[in-house]
Amino acid sequence: MTERTLILLRHAKSDWSGEVSDLERPLADRGLLQAPLAGAWLDRNIGHIDLAVVSPAHRARSTWDIAAGELAETPPIRVDSRGYAASAGELLDVVRELPDEFDTVVLVVHNPGIAGLAELLTGAWIPMPTSTLAVLGLTGPWSDAGRQPAEMLATGRPPEDIPHRHRDR
C-alpha cells in the first residue's frame, strides 16, 4: 500500500479590527509571527511537500505564502474555493480528489471544517486553534481517505515542541 501524508494547517490568527469582508480579512500581528514558525517546523520535520491546497481567503493564502517562504523547496499551490467555509465532508471530497502522483499534501483551510476533517480521518477530536498543524499518515490512494483511520503523526502549534515521529519512506 502507498503511504501518504496529509498535513492540515489552520490559517494563522486573523485581524478582526478592519471593515473588510470575511474573505479579505488579513492576518493579525500574532498571525504574522505564527505563520513563519509553522513553515519552519514543516521544513525541519516534513521536508518535501508535493502540493499545497489553500482556501481563497486572504488569511489562508497569506498564511501559506509566509509559511512556504520558510521551506527549502516551495511546492506548487492550488487555490481551491471549496476550502473556504467548508464542512468536514466537503474537505474530505477535496482530499479524495487529490492526484495519486502526490504523496505529501498540505491543506490550508479554516475551522470548524479542518478540525472536523481531522476527526473524520483519525476518529479522534483534535483541537485546531490558529496555526495548528496536524500531520496524518494515510494508506492507499487519496480516493480512499476516511475509509480507514489515518494515523496521527504529529499535532500542535509551533513553536511549541510538537511530538513527531519521523517516518522513512
Describe the structure.
The protein has a single domain (3-156), classed as Rossmann fold (3-Layer(aba) Sandwich), CATH 3.40.50.1240. The radius of gyration is 15 Å and the shape is globular. The two termini are 12 Å apart. The longest helix has 17 residues, at 29-45. The protein has a six-stranded mixed beta sheet. With 169 residues, it is an alpha/beta fold. Helix 1 (29-45) crosses helix 2 (58-68) and helix 3 packs across helix 4. The chain has helices spanning 29-45, 58-68, 88-96, 113-122, and strands at residues 3-10, 51-54, 77-79, 104-109, 133-139, 151-156.
Q: Distance N terminus to C terminus?
A: 12 Å
Element string (H = helix, E = strand): EHEHEHEHEE
- Are there runs of 5+ residues with pLDDT below 50, and where? 163-169
Protein structure class: alpha/beta
Please give the order of strands in the largest beta sheet: 3-2-4-1-5-6
Main beta sheet strand tally, sense and closure:
6 strands, mixed
Number of domains: 1
CATH architecture label: 3-Layer(aba) Sandwich
In DSSP terms, counting alpha (H) and pi (I) runs of 4 or more, how many helices? 4
Overall pLDDT score: 92
